[in-house]
Design brief:
Helix content is 33%, strand content 21%. It is built from 15 helices and 17 strands. The strands form 3 sheets. A 9-stranded mixed beta sheet has the order 2-3-1-4-5-6-9-10-11. β10 and β11 form a beta hairpin. α4 packs across α10. It is globular and about 60 Å long.
Length: 436
């Protein structure tokens, strides 16, 4: 029967792509009409199904794991295109799996966990972090974590948890033989990007005590009133440099350099390394895979203009923490180098209709950068421009809601470096226009 599903899924995908769509979700939607339990049927013979989630970094982490498993010679299922809701996950299993496929690495949208777990229970679940994101979809973070906890309860899933995030640590009571990862104190100095989300103990509501903060709520914390605290970690970053690529050592093992940019990717590399070790991949293969992965999905993706030195750095941002990290990228660049920005903001359903989060983002980060021009685009371009007005930025600011026109405007400046930051539904169109 699975061969029939595969045939249908591939045919529907081909038809969808022929009319200019991505074809990542429609096959799953069609298969679910045929059989409401199709995901349960497609996953029943897998040995390991690993879910990867979190507000930021789940796509990069999932792709790092998937790429490394493939370079290690394993046949896997991996939704590397980021189709992380129910229909996209069904499509991925239907199209990619065969009778020899026993491992699946699945990025999953936080809000889709309940729906997907009606049909499949993962053997392992990776949690990277939790930040405020799409409040009109997910609710407040406490509500989201409680919802996820109810799905994990009693399932005996091995949890792989970022111990530096107290929100993630709250889930530890639901897991079996949990594995923890984190960054050791004073290993790397992150720029302060603010937004301390988790101030109070989830057990007794007392104020948490931090004796070290990496950034936001990530760090070393404990409660003076009860035993809630950062768990002792199994995998730890013991050295890290960003110049601009990340060079890293984990558990004091040999250093390796990746193709990843942006210091927030230190956590994604660590999360992937930890998961791959738990899956039994030896260190040489892990390092080979993590070192060779390059992004082409809008997460710290480098796009070079043909026959030119112009470089555009494309990075998705859809919440305050992600935006602050993206705005901070240029702070590691030579201040004599001038740059341009393209900021793209939509408010479609998948983005969340509430864009008030841009006012929680710290655009003052830009004030110390050598910026020539900023182009605001997308359906809410005017709101972006208004937000920039409340900073001390001397750059020229342009507004064009049409993404194609905005990208062409950016290209016309012909500066050597562009930083392009779209939100979720703006990403693909922005990427396509940059690569055109």
């Amino acid at each position: 029967m699975n061969n029939v599903y595969k045939f249908i899924a591939k045919a529907v995908r081909a038809g969808s792509k022929s009319i200019g769509k991505k074809g990542t979700d429609l096959p799953g939607k069609v298969l679910r009409k045929i059989n409401s339990n199709v995901l349960k049927d497609l996953t029943k013979d897998f040995d390991d199904i690993v879910f990867v989630t979190g507000t930021n970094g789940k796509t990069t982490t999932s792709n790092l794991i998937g790429h490394t498993l493939k370079t290690s010679g394993l046949e896997i299922v991996n939704n590397y295109e980021g189709a992380n809701m129910l229909d996209g996950i069904i499509s991925t299993f239907a199209i990619q799996s065969s009778k020899n496929t026993k491992i699946a690495i699945i990025e999953i949208d936080e809000g889709s966990i309940k729906k997907v777990m009606n049909y499949v229970t993962p053997t392992k679940f990776v949690f990277n972090n939790f930040f405020r994101d799409q409040i009109d979809r997910f609710g407040e973070i406490d509500t989201l974590i409680d919802t996820i906890g109810r799905q994990l309860e009693g399932k005996n899933i091995q949890l792989i948890l970022n111990s530096d995030d107290p929100f993630v640590s709250r889930l530890s009571k639901y897991g079996k033989e949990n594995i923890y990862f984190g960054i050791s104190k004073n290993t790397y100095k992150f720029d302060n990007i603010g937004i301390t989300e988790s101030k109070f103990c989830p057990v007794c509501s007392s104020e948490l005590n931090y004796d070290h903060i990496h950034y936001s709520q990530l760090g070393y914390y404990s409660c003076n009133n009860c035993d809630f605290k950062r768990h002792k970690v199994d995998y730890e970053v013991t050295s890290a440099r960003v110049n601009p690529l990340i060079t890293i050592s984990i558990n004091n093992n040999k250093e390796f350099t990746t193709s990843q940019l942006g210091d927030f990717n230190i956590y994604n590399i660590l999360s992937a390394y930890t998961t791959l070790s738990v899956l039994g991949i030896d260190e040489d293969n892990i390092i080979r895979g993590l070192s060779s992965y390059t992004s082409n999905n809008g997460r710290m993706q480098i796009i070079r203009k043909k026959d030119s030195d112009v470089v555009s750095l494309l990075n998705l941002a859809k919440n305050p923490a992600g935006m602050n990290a993206s705005l901070n990228i240029a702070n590691s660049m030579d201040k004599n180098i001038s740059i341009n920005y393209l900021l793209v903001l939509n408010d479609n359903g998948a983005d969340g209709f509430d864009i008030s989060w841009i006012w929680d983002s710290d655009f003052s980060i830009l004030e110390s950068q050598n910026i020539k021009n900023i182009v605001c685009s997308g359906k809410r371009a005017k709101e972006l421009a208004l937000r920039l007005k409340y900073t001390n930025i001397s750059a020229n600011i342009y507004v064009d809601e049409n993404i194609k026109n905005a990208v062409n405007k950016l290209k016309s400046f012909n500066e050597q470096y562009n930083i392009v930051i779209p939100n979720y539904t703006a990403l693909v169109e922005t990427q396509n226009e940059l690569e055109r």
